[in-house]
Write a structure and sequence with these properties.
Number of helices: 6
Structural class: alpha+beta
Shape: globular
Strand content: 25-35%
Radius of gyration: 16 Å
Distance between the termini: 36 Å
Oligomer: single chain
Number of strands: 14
């Protein structure tokens, strides 16, 4: 999923961040994929310790959104991936957000690209935090089973996630609910950062607003 190119010289990116999913942010219109970690996709479900299903992808994104709030985030670029997203280590008030997500169990170390956060994963697994409280399919395996290396609006719709998150020509993040004036004509392009949401609360937590019509 990363296919990261060699690290390149670039200034840090900082500012208010919007959470796209559990391992992806957007700052000043720049899409940032968190280095060395992999979080469950928005449509992905996992099992809790009693065998019940829960939307682990949604929970990972909400955990990250709640952690950040409205505070500024600073990201140090490491490279870019095949989708032209910036690969970066991001900090919130000096705290490594990549490490935090793995430590609380809502992401795993992406060993294929980095071993930076293996010790954080080991600690989360031992303490049964987040994903480790139950059972789950590693995100990369889940994406492969869906026939894609990236989240798709089609898989979200099949999972009952019907709210369309569209980015306007002015860069505004607007979501459309079924029955809205523009719902049927709205098409989602994940590579542009557009996505499906499973609830309005999830859309608002990610920094999107409801369409006025």
């Amino acid at each position: 999923m990363f296919d990261a190119k060699p690290a390149f010289a670039s200034e840090a990116i900082s500012g208010r961040a919007s959470v796209i999913d559990g391992d992806t942010l957007e700052i000043h219109g720049q899409r940032i994929r968190l280095h060395g970690i992999d979080a469950p996709e928005s449509a992905q479900t996992c099992k809790d310790d009693r065998g019940g299903s829960h939307r682990c992808g949604q929970r990972a994104a909400l955990a990250l959104s709640n952690k950040i709030g409205e505070r500024p985030v600073a990201c140090a670029p490491r490279g870019t991936d095949r989708y032209q997203r910036i690969i970066a280590v991001c900090h919130l008030g000096g705290e490594d957000l990549n490490a935090w997500l793995v430590s609380v169990g809502w992401a795993i170390a992406y060993r294929r690209f980095s071993t930076d956060y293996v010790s954080h994963e080991d600690a989360a697994r031992e303490a049964k935090r987040g994903l480790w409280a139950g059972t789950f399919t590693p995100p990369e395996e889940w994406r492969r089973a869906q026939g894609s290396s990236a989240p798709s609006s089609a898989s979200d719709q099949k999972s009952g996630c019907l709210i369309k998150g569209n980015i306007s020509s002015k860069g505004e993040r607007i979501y459309h609910v079924p029955g809205g004036d523009f719902y049927d004509q709205t098409r989602i392009d994940p590579l542009k950062g557009e996505r499906m949401f499973c609830s309005e609360a999830e859309a608002r937590a990610a920094g999107w607003r409801r369409s006025k019509r």
